[in-house]
């Protein structure tokens, strides 16, 4: 008895020590790669062996780290004019169309799986992994990696609990209270908004079912079919694979209100990408912020939008507007050639964002409202002025405003005129700062920090060979059964049959009576 305990103990210990982990972040989106980097860091620190497929290679040299460089995927966004400030100012988007997002994901998928470095990895018959972690945006074909390596897989989702990912491990949450991640609607929804959400879901599903998924299925079969044949195994059906993840990690946390309910294999690890303690600031920034006795306003529009695509006049007007404040303004802007920068404004090409936000003198964060920036604002307790530009940024800022720690300002040629009163409100009204402090306390008040939680769950999945015990029974119940449409059909058939019979019976009686009358 004792021996068996000891042996299983040794087995369990050795089982998770030095796991071989494949982390795949194929999209050319910098902020997503920051999440990938976070996962790499935590798993390496836990002693695991990490292979990282990435568009933005890291400068890490370690025995337990290897990179598969797919930086050429940036070609996908380099030529995309819809990502320039010029285009956005002229088109006033409030919501990216679903076909655009689905197509983008499939293009990235094709580029990644056809990349020679990835091919080399996949074709090596000696390669094996214990677990796959892959970024999840709109395309599930990467689940084929788990089939190839015959190991469990975990999705890492950059947002919160949305129907599009919940449907992969449970059921799609109800559109009546869980709007799409690209939707500006926030619950509680009005009648029209509910109808809108239902429609947008039907439309998304229509596109996915009839256009995107057939293409994904054929990519899956073309790429993984031959690879598995070489390893002497048959290729399972695509649908059995895409719904077979062990866990979903979500980059969200408990302080956020109005979240959809989630199954037991959906884990919130929001904030895991933030290094703790934060790295010290560079000396010049440290001195600058330390000596700003009226406080600091930090302004950054993230990494996707290039500042140099901003119209010159807009830049000059912003500078002039910032110059009217006595606060120090730190503006992350990739252009050193600006003339006439006011004394209180400091342009930096690169900003150690977490370290800046961590400083107590920083009073507010003017941001595009990307998921990472929104999270960091809560982590460090700084109120936001949001200027959303695309994708989930509208939702993030709506949510932050609803949670009481953000103001939204639209991106337009009039940005400086609209931004100024918002800054004044933030400076004079401490409600926003108080509210974000409260949320920050909620956010930090958890059982385990998100990084160790990530490591624990990955190890747990491997230890339990896919964590089948955490799977939702709903996953295998089709929609018509969940809605009891079959029962409804039976009830309707019986009811109509009875009504039909009764009518026949009545008619017959009447007929007979009439016959009698006639014969009389
Ligand atoms: C689904 O995942 C489990 C656990 O990782 C695995 O044992 C099983 O083979 C997978 N099924 C398919 C069809 O890939």
TrEMBL record:
Keywords: Glycosyltransferase, Membrane, Signal, Transferase, Transmembrane, Transmembrane helix. InterPro entries: UDP-glycosyltransferase, UDP_glucos_trans. The chain crosses the membrane at residues 483-503. Residues 1-18 form the signal peptide. Pfam families: UDPGT (PF00201). One of its GO terms (molecular function) is UDP-glycosyltransferase activity. PANTHER family: EG:EG0003.4 PROTEIN-RELATED (PTHR48043). Belongs to the UDP-glycosyltransferase family. This is UDP-glucuronosyltransferase 2B10-like. The lineage of its organism: Eukaryota, Metazoa, Ecdysozoa, Arthropoda, Hexapoda.
């Amino acid at each position: 008895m004792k021996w068996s305990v000891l042996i299983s103990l040794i087995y369990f210990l050795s089982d998770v020590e030095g796991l071989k982990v494949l982390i795949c972040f194929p999209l050319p989106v910098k902020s997503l790669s920051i999440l990938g980097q976070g996962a790499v860091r935590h798993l390496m620190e836990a002693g695991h062996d990490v292979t990282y497929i990435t568009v933005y290679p890291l400068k890490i040299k370690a025995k337990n780290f290897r990179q598969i460089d797919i930086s050429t995927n940036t070609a996908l966004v380099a030529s995309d004019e819809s990502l320039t400030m010029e285009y956005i100012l002229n088109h006033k988007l409030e919501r990216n169309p679903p076909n655009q997002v689905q197509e983008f994901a499939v293009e990235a998928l094709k580029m990644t799986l056809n990349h020679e470095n990835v091919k080399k990895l996949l074709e090596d018959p000696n390669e094996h992994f214990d677990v796959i972690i892959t970024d999840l945006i709109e395309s599930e074909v990467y689940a084929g990696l788990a089939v190839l390596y015959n190991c469990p897989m975990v999705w890492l989702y950059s947002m919160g609990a949305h129907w599009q990912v919940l449907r992969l491990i449970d059921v799609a949450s109800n559109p009546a209270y869980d709007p799409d991640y690209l939707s500006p609607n926030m619950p509680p929804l009005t009648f029209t908004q509910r109808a809108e959400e239902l429609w947008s879901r039907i439309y998304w599903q229509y596109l996915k079912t009839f256009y995107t998924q057939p293409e994904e299925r054929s990519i899956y079969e073309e790429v993984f079919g031959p690879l598995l044949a070489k390893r002497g195994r048959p290729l399972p059906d695509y649908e059995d694979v895409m719904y077979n993840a062990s866990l979903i990690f979500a980059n969200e946390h408990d302080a956020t209100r109005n979240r959809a309910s989630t199954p037991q294999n959906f884990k919130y690890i929001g904030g895991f990408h933030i290094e703790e303690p934060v790295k010290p600031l560079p000396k010049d920034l440290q001195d600058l912020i330390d000596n700003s006795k009226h406080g600091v306003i930090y302004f950054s529009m993230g990494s996707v939008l290039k500042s140099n695509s901003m119209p010159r006049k807009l830049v000059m007007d912003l500078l002039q507007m910032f110059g009217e404040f006595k606060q120090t303004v730190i503006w992350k802007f990739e252009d050193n050639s600006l003339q006439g920068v006011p004394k209180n404004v400091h342009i930096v090409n690169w900003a150690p964002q977490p370290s800046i936000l961590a400083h107590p003198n920083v009073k507010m964060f003017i941001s595009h409202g990307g998921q990472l920036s929104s999270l960091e604002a809560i982590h460090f307790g700084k109120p936001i002025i949001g200027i959303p530009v695309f994708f989930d940024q509208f939702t993030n800022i709506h949510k932050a405003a609803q949670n009481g720690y953000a103001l939204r300002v639209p991106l337009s040629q009039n940005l400086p005129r609209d931004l100024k009163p918002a800054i004044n409100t933030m400076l004079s009204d401490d409600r926003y700062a108080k509210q974000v402090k409260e949320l920050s306390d909620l956010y930090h008040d958890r059982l385990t920090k998100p990084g160790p939680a990530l490591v624990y769950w990955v190890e747990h999945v491997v230890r339990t060979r896919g964590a089948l015990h955490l799977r939702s029974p709903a996953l295998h119940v089709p929609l018509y059964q969940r809605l009891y449409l079959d029962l409804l059909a039976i009830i309707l058939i019986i009811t109509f049959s009875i009504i039909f019979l009764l009518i026949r019976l009545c008619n017959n009686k009447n007929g007979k009576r009439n016959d009698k009358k006639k014969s009389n």
